[in-house]
Amino acid sequence: MSEYFKNINKIKFEGRNSTEPLAFKYYDPDQLIGGKTMKEHLKFALSWWHTMGGDGTDMFGVGTADKTWGESDPAARSKAKVDAAFEIMDKLSIDYFCFHDRDLSPEYGSLAETNEKLDEITDYIAEKQNETGKKCLWGTAKCFDHPRYMHGAGTSPSADVFAFTAAQIKKAIEATVKLGGNGYVFWGGREGYETLLNTDMGLELDNMARLMHMAVEYGRSIGFKGDFYIEPKPKEPTKHQYDFDTATVLGFLRKYGLEKDFKMNIEANHATLAQHAFQHELRVARVNGVFGSIDANQGDPLLGWDTDQFPTNIYDAALCMYEVLKAGGFTNGGLNFDAKARRGSFTPEDIFLSYIAGMDTFALGLRIAQKMIDDGRIDQFIADRYSSWTTGIGRDIIDGKAGFAELEKYALAKGEVSSSLSSGRQEMLESYVNNIMFSI
Ligand code: XLS
Ligand code: NI
Ligand code: NI
Questions:
Q1: Among 51, 98, 145, 187, which residue has the most ligand 1 atoms within 8 Å of its CB, making it the best to mutate?
Q2: How confident is the prediction for the chain on average, in pLDDT?
Q3: pLDDT of 409-424, one tens digit each?
Q4: Per-residue confidence (pLDDT) for residue 24, from 0 to 100
Q5: Is the CB of 231 under 6 A from ligand 1?
Q6: Is the CB of 308 under 6 A from ligand 1?
Q7: What number of CA atoms fall less than 13 Å from residue 120's CA on the CB side?
Q8: How many Å apart are CA 206 and CA 204, to the nearest integer?
Q9: Distance between CA 273 and CA 258 in Å, rounded?
């Protein structure tokens, strides 16, 4: 097996004063934060599509990075990708990977042949996992790039396409189980519409739910014990995507009785496309008990599409990790870098430099989030702000002892209440966060 990155050694933690670009400044895998190591908290994953396949091709130009891994034959390239991926994971100390079926192995002449070739590659990956201990965070099926999915996959007007989708997902779940993945993702790439003039929305949503029920039933029947995830995104490539945001997806899951098996895979850039903060999406998932996993990336605030940049915004990472810690940490989920180096960052070193940037950002975010919690001022402020719910009339409302009649009587007796309100202190709280962040 050849070494693909000969001039890159295993990336070491050198600390904040290091000026070595190919070293971690903040990610120290064994450092204890709140009783767990950074490695246990962060569960970083490599994304097979961006890292092993994404060559910088965009709508205006061809690729700039060589991701052929020295092979022109598709099967040989798939295998080389595995070797290169494991080398990257090893050198970056990344324990997990995420994949689409077609990232591992492309389509061949027939579905049968495609499946056979996929089996060969997943056999090979399983061997490498045994040797190295690397794990699969989640798998998914690429049901959006082939022309057959032009009108959607599970929401296609064509029952034949639905059948093909089901067959593809069945196989992708099998591959995920074989690789020991604890997550299976549905991201509805083309599950949406371009115009309502040609769309039976009710049928499409029912069908999407039918597909997910079949996936759960089949997955459980072959021993998949992990979480199914929906990854919300409001648009792109469709004008409107059905799994718009976490709140929308919750309504869908509950309507169709899928909420016990599905959690959210929240992607930062998708949150911003839905005009939400990343933290908002995580909070909605957390308070509804469906927080699952994270696609760690960031968008450009001035661009309205999924730029999938490596996350370097410390503030967002800190607030993200604050939600993760408050949710009790990851169980089956983790932090998948659904991110790609910019088209102009095309050299092999850029792969490492961009992961280092993202991993250091989340290491810092984790430390800040833990400090926000240990510091206690924010939690105390919130507890005080809602203290009227712990005694008196507030307690009675929560305990179901006061209804409209009792509350009217209470309000009439009490008189005007606005003078009892206290300030929301937003600016003070924001300055607490700054204070904590910059004294880390
Ligand atoms: C695209 C999505 C995709 C999913 C996996 O916007 O982020 O990459 O994470 O299908
Ligand atoms: Ni994603
Ligand atoms: Ni995305």
A1: 187
A2: 98
A3: 999 999 999 999 999 9
A4: 99
A5: yes
A6: no
A7: 14
A8: 5
A9: 25
